[in-house]
Amino acid sequence: MRIVLLGAPGSGKGTQSKLIMERYKVPQISTGDLLRAAVSAGTPLGQQAKAAMDAGQLVTDDIVLGMIRERLAMPDTQQGYILDGFPRNLAQAGALDDLLKELGKPLDVALLIDVDFDNLMQRLTGRQTCSSCGAVFNRHTNPSRKENVCDVCGGELTHRADDNEETIGKRLKVYEEQTRPLVQYYNERSLLQTVKGEGEIESIYKAVSEVLESSRK
After folding, report:
1. What is the pTM of this model?
2. Active site residues
3. Residues 38-58: pLDDT tens digits?
C-alpha cells in the first residue's frame, strides 16, 4: 500500500499511521524524521538542510524530495509506504507526483482523517503528556483518573505552553489555507478516501482498514 496521510493537527493521523504500519508491514515516512536523521548523519542532503536551518531559512522542497527519493530506494519500501507530513501544499503535491511516477511507485490512496474544527481545538488545548513515560491524556476527552497524575506510571502530566487557543488557532488556519486544498487535488485524481476521525480509536481504524482494503482491489 502506497499511502499519503492527510489531516489537520490533532486529527489522530499519527495513531492511525502506527496501526497501518503494523497491519501492512510498511514504513511511515515522516519528513521531520528524515530531516533529523540526515542532519545527524551528515549526508550531503543533510548538510544542505542544516545550512538552510542555520541561516534561519526553510529547507527547500528539492532537498526534502531528495530525501524522500533516497528513503524510497530502501528495501523496506518495496511493499509500500505511508507518507506523513508531506506534501503540505499544492506545489509539493505536484512535485511529489512527478517523483513517484519517475520511481514507478505512485500513490494508491490519499487518506484523509477528517475532524471538525471544534473537536480539534478541544483535543489540542486539553492535551497532557506524562513527563516520565510519555503517555498522552486529554483533560476534556481522555482525562487521567487523578488530576495531573499519569495512570500508567504515576508521573506528572504536563501541558505544553503552545497548546493554547491562540497558537493552535494559527496552526489550524495555516492548515486550512495551505494543506486543505490537497483534499480537492487528490479527489480530482480519484485517489481521495475520507474517514471520520471521531470516536474510539478502534472504530476509526476499522473504517480506515475497510477503505484501504477497497483501495487494493
Report:
1. 0.84
2. 13, 88, 127, 160, 171
3. 999 999 999 999 999 899 888
